[in-house]
Design brief:
The protein is of the alpha/beta class. It has two domains: 9-148; 152-414, no CATH class. It contains two helices and 30 strands. It has helices at 8-71, 77-87; strands at residues 97-102, 118-125, 140-147, 151-158, 166-168, 173-176, 180-183, 191-194, 198-201, 204-206, 210-214, 217-219, 222-224, 246-251, 254-257, 260-268, 273-276, 279-290, 295-299, 301-306, 316-318, 323-327, 337-341, 349-355, 358-360, 362-375, 384-394, 397-399, 401-402, 411-414. It starts with 7 loop residues before the first helix and ends with a strand.
Length: 415
């Protein structure tokens, strides 16, 4: 029988000595892994903080862009967005990259078709601290924000900042249940109704106040103390023109007239029957006058009241007893515009008093004129009629609608 020269105790001690070396290696590796996780946890906490800051910057940029669109238009969009991004720490010095500024937002965002909404997309590399030991390159942080507001169509925008802006009197009716009315006057009676007059609008927004003490009624929500609204068509420009195709044009017969420059205006005497061919009519230092019992029709028409000399600006006068049916072109730079008064004129009085047989479609743009309106009594007579004027006086039943064929004809404002 052969006996092992090592005792059991010695064998056990030898075995544990070998295990101590393995345990030391495993423990060292475990500590290294633990340090890695701790480093990653610390850095991830920092990343979350910077991700929140990046999102705040994106939100601020999108909101700033939406405000720019409502106040000054798309030309200042990037300026506003970049300014607000910089205020919230998104700069090149901070390694913040503006991936995109989109107006409208890119599809499939729910506001992808909203031209008054802005999308801002940002990117920034995450900082590496302890995790630098384990990551070859930093991950990218991303943030996206979309800002915009619901749009309300406005059928009437009254720009005068003092006195009575909208005056409905003598049993008159302004019927615009699908669109709103906006009045810039800060007077307490900026919107004034007397003699059982009725204003039926989707909304009435007024810088000042409303007065119904004279017996009038306003239906629909009223927002007093609204912010002043700038001219929504301040960028609309009169095309260049020259010469005279007609001078002091006048008729009492049945005629078809053509687009061109009408120096001295257009005078349609009583009992005339006149058709306006499609196109743009420049009334240079003259007015459009439509006499009693006259019939005037035209499709695809734009009438511009201007002056090549800077004086003697014309006006529009349509009297009762006429039959008028005019609509604008749906294409071109003046699509949707039926009548356009030069902004350089001042204090002009416009009389659109054709009554129930007066059907005007499109945009009536009289930013510095005082307009007296009586027409479009039949609600279905026109699905598109909007007006921008210095002041507006209603003397009869009038129906307004915002179902216009082009974006130009739709006055869209933020809620």
């Amino acid at each position: 029988m052969i006996f092992d020269r090592f005792s059991l105790k010695e064998k056990i001690n030898t075995l544990f000595k070998r295990d101590k070396g393995a345990i030391a290696i495993i423990t060292g590796l475990g500590i290294l892994v633990f340090i890695g996780f701790a480093a990653l946890a610390i850095d991830v906490g920092t990343w979350y903080s910077q991700k929140r800051q990046l999102q705040i910057a994106a939100d601020a940029g999108a909101i700033g862009g939406a405000i720019a669109l409502s106040k000054t238009g798309k030309s200042t969009l990037n300026t506003y967005v970049n300014h607000d991004l910089a205020l919230n720490g998104c700069t090149a010095a901070n390694n913040c990259t503006i991936v995109a500024i989109n107006n409208p937002p890119a599809s499939p965002d729910p506001l992808a078709s909203n031209t008054f909404a802005v999308e801002v997309v940002l990117s920034k590399p995450a900082p590496l601290f302890l995790s630098r030991l384990f990551l070859a390159s930093p991950p990218n942080l991303h943030a996206r924000a979309v800002a915009g507001k619901n749009q309300i169509s406005q059928c009437a925008v009254i720009l005068s900042n003092s006195g009575i802006g909208l005056n409905a009197k003598g049993g008159s009716t302004l019927n615009s249940p699908n669109c709103g009315v906006y009045v810039d006057s800060n007077a307490s009676n900026a919107v004034n109704t007397t003699g059982n007059a009725l204003i039926n609008a989707k909304s009435v927004s007024v810088v000042g106040g409303v007065n119904t003490s004279g017996g009038g009624t306003i239906t629909g929500p009223i927002s007093s103390g609204a912010a002043t609204l700038n001219d929504p068509f301040s960028g609309l420009q009169i095309p260049p023109f020259s010469g005279c195709n007609q001078t002091n044009f006048s008729t009492h017969g049945t005629v078809t007239i053509n687009p061109g420059v009408y120096c001295g205006g257009i005078n349609l005497g009583s009992h005339s029957v006149v058709t306006m061919s499609p196109g743009t009519y420049f009334l240079d230092q003259g007015s459009l006058t439509v006499g009693a019992q006259t019939t005037l029709t035209g499709t695809g028409v734009t009438i511009i009241l201007t002056s090549s000399t800077g004086s003697n600006y014309g006006t529009v006068s349509i009297v009762g007893g006429t039959s008028v049916n005019l609509s604008p072109s749906t294409t071109g730079p003046l699509a949707g515009v039926l009548m356009f008064e030069d902004r350089n004129s001042s204090g002009v009085s416009v009389n659109l008093d054709g009554g129930s047989t007066q059907v005007l479609s499109g945009l009536l743009y009289f930013p510095t004129a005082n307009v007296d309106y009586n027409g479009q009594a039949t609600t279905g007579a026109s699905t598109c009629l909007q007006i921008v004027a210095n002041t507006l006086t209603l003397t009869g039943a009038s129906s307004f609608g915002n179902n216009c064929p082009t974006n130009l004809g739709n006055i869209q404002l933020f809620e």
